[in-house]
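Lecture notes, unit on binding sites. The following record was shown on slide 14. It pairs a sequence with SKM.
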Amino acid sequence: MASLNLIQRPKGVTPASRNAQVHAAHLRPVISRHAPFTAASWTKSHAASSHNRLWARRAELSRSVQACGAEVDDGRTPGHPYPWEEDYDLLSDKVKEVTDELSKDLRGCNIWLVGMMGSGKSTVGKMLANTLKYAFFDTDSVIELAHDKKPVSQIFAEEGQDYFRNCESQIIKELSPYRNLVIATGGGAVLRPENWGYMHIGIVCWLNGDIDLLARRVARDGIEKRPLLAADAPEGADVQVVAREKLGSLLEQRRRYYENADVVVTLEGYGKDMENGAPTPAVMYRLLTAVNEKVQAKKREQAERMNFRIEGAEQLRNMRTLESPAAAASAAAAAQGEGEGAQPPSP
Ligand SMILES: Nc1ncnc2c1ncn2[C@@H]1O[C@H](COP(=O)(O)OP(=O)(O)OP(=O)(O)O)[C@@H](O)[C@H]1O
Ligand SMILES: O=C(O)C1=C[C@@H](O)[C@@H](O)[C@H](O)C1
């Protein structure tokens, strides 16, 4: 598979030869200029949202209830392991905090999102890229753009799965030398070992969701866009049931590959989010935190490696002293003194 020439190459990155089937002429830059979310816009939009107004009203009410000495029900889910996710102001503060720390140490390292269909790689990826001020790529969309916007399902039908996987691998290879990218991969990108070689140059994050949750999401979107789910679906069958079954068997084959990821993020939702999974900002926060932990651990490990003592350093220093011109002169003078009838050293 030849080069897709996705984006303008920086100096030093050599283009591969072209492919007759995938002409560079069909391609165009796909760095996301369209920014549906940024950390700032998200914070602002949510500060003004009815959700936040509701929280402000609740806080006000609970203060007045407390003032009367009554018990307060703050409306939060008991036992929620991430209680701040239910408060958008608090969550956006936490996102900012972790992003500030991570951005200092991430140094442009790429973030690769892997996971099953419907796990939200594209949705979370866009928000993450804007928060980190990274560019966003979705390998499925790049392949579609490379084929005059032909949908993935049509490429599968006309060219076959192998051809699609070759395009996917080519894109992964071509993107890996760049920096400051969030890349949402196709659900099957984990299957090829050579893809891991490129993805592991960056940090690979698995968005790990329950099969029922994924099936609900892809059924809502319609499975016809996803050829591996739509293939051989019995007519009139319940789409969600079909999706659940197929996703289940794909996950069984793929789990061991997804487990190679550097970071695993659960999509589990609590309380009101039980049905749809954790909201996108919450998933992004979980992901930022997990990546930050990884990056900080690496930094500590590197600092420890630098903090070593050379055994015998003292002797090395003495040797250097003896070899210095002054030490050599005084050693020579002493030797000469010895030769001129100096006293023999005491035993
Ligand atoms: N946190 C979320 N809460 C609710 N719905 C979500 C969330 N994240 C994604 N979705 C919805 O789930 C569906 C699948 O999301 P998305 O396309 O981002 O997944 P994907 O992993 O990129 O899938 P694929 O690999 O099939 O392209 C979309 O309809 C999207 O709106
Ligand atoms: O899980 C998969 O194998 C796929 C997922 C989609 O993102 C597309 O890449 C394609 O439909 C194949």
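Take-home: The beta strands are 111-114, 135-138, 181-184, 203-208, 263-266.
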